[in-house]
Amino acid sequence: AAPWLIPQQNGMVERLIRTQKEQCTHRHRFESIQHATRGIADWITFYNNRRPHQALAIRTTAEAFKLAA
Predict the structure, then answer these.
(1) What is d(CA 40, CA 27) in angstroms, rounded to the nearest whole number?
(2) 24 close to 40: Cβ distance less than 8 angstroms
(3) Residues 64, 9: Cα–Cα separation, whole Å
(4) Domain count, the chain
(5) Phi, psi of 67 (to 5 degrees)
(6) Domain extent at residue 38
(7) If residue 22 lies in a helix (H) or strand (E), which one and from where to where?
(8) Has this prediction a pTM greater than 0.85?
(9) Looking at residue 23, what is its pLDDT?
C-alpha cells in the first residue's frame, strides 16, 4: 500500500486532524463553507500560537519553531 494510506506512518498528522475535529469541527455548527473555513483558520492560529503542547515542554508550536531555527 502507498505510505499515505497507512495511518501508522503518518501518526502525527492523524493526531493533529483528530485534535482539530475534537476541539473545533465537532464543537461548532458551521452555517456555510466560508464560516467553517474561518473557524478552522482561527483554530489553527490558536493551535500554533497560543496553545501550549506537552510534547514541546509546554511551549506553543511557534515558540518551539523559533527555538529550533
Answers:
(1) 11
(2) yes
(3) 23
(4) 1
(5) -65, -30
(6) 11-68
(7) helix 11-23
(8) no
(9) 95
- Are 58 and 47 contacting, i.e. CB atoms less than 8 angstroms apart? no
Please indicate, yes or no, if residue 23 is contained in any of the structural domains.
Answer: yes
Give percent above pLDDT 70 in the chain. Answer: 94
HSE-up of residue 69 (Cα within 13 Å, Cβ side): 6
Residues in Cβ contact with 49 at an 8 Å cutoff, skipping those fewer than 6 apart = 60, 61, 62
More confident residue, 29 or 5: 29
Domain assignment present for residue 32? The answer is yes
Q: Tell me whether residue 4 is in a domain.
A: no
Q: Does a structural domain hold residue 2?
A: no
Q: What is the pLDDT of residues 6-33, one digit of tens each?
A: 767 788 888 889 999 999 999 999 999 9
Question: How much is the mean pLDDT over the chain?
Answer: 90
